[in-house]
Amino acid sequence: xxxxxxxxxxxxxxxxxxxxxxxxxxxxxxxxxxxxxxxxxxxxxxxxxxxxxxxxxxxxxxxxxxxxxxxxxxxxxxxxxxxxxxxxxxxxxxxxxxxxxxxxxxxxxxxxxxxxxxxxxxxxxxxxxxxxxxxxxxxxxxxxxxxxxxxxxxxxxxxxxxxxxxxxxxxxxxxxxxxxxxxxxxxxxxxxxxxxxxxxxxxxxxxxxxxxxxxxxxxxxxxxxxxxxxxxxxxxxxxxxxxxxxxxxxxxxxxxxxxxxxxxxxxxxxxxxxx
Length: 275
Hints:
Blueprint: H1 4-8, E1 19-22, E2 26-29, E3 32-33, H2 43-52, H3 58-69, H4 79-89, H5 94-104, H6 112-130, H7 135-146, H8 163-172, H9 179-193, H10 202-212, H11 217-224, H12 232-240
Antiparallel strand pairs: 1-2, 2-3
Helix pairs in contact: 4-5, 4-12, 5-12, 6-10, 6-11, 9-10
């Protein structure tokens, strides 16, 4: 059935498996009682249950939480944090500033887009290897086709300061044996040994860990949405406590302008008619 008939079936009712509130009685959350069987969940546990419909071990939850914690930087120079800080310096509301900062975290070149491409690369590469293809050749093909591999290389510095603490925690929790994690490091070895000299960055590491935990690309995306969140409010609040417009002002003399040259404006004489 399609068209008006299909729509007619949904008139006046919501068909969903997500959940519902029965006012004054209970809240159903993916088939569970939010204030009953789910009441002892942490917020992150509930968030992951909302995304996946599954629960995770405490070891897995520690690693998932660290994925957020280790990349929450309270630095207003970072592209998405700057939006939150600019909202503070212009006296916008906190919710608008934080929402805008989270929204631009979807950036394809250096935000959530990198994470998704890294996951897709690892999944695609692992599938090809299981069919007998050579990893080094797969890396070369990827580089030839796309000139880069998502999750490898960093424009600021060669190494990523988040890798070491995250791997220390992963080993501590006994979660360092995943096949995608091993693949991510094998790709790094190839890139470092060849002419590319590219280290793994946080995107590839998180992509590998999330995939080893059973998250699909879509689930990983939703998990990653709040990843930078904890670093945003400090940037907003710090800017809001200072005089308006003080955050990273940009004087005209710093602009490289090559347009129409400066012109002189003369006030025209006004002619007044008395009719």
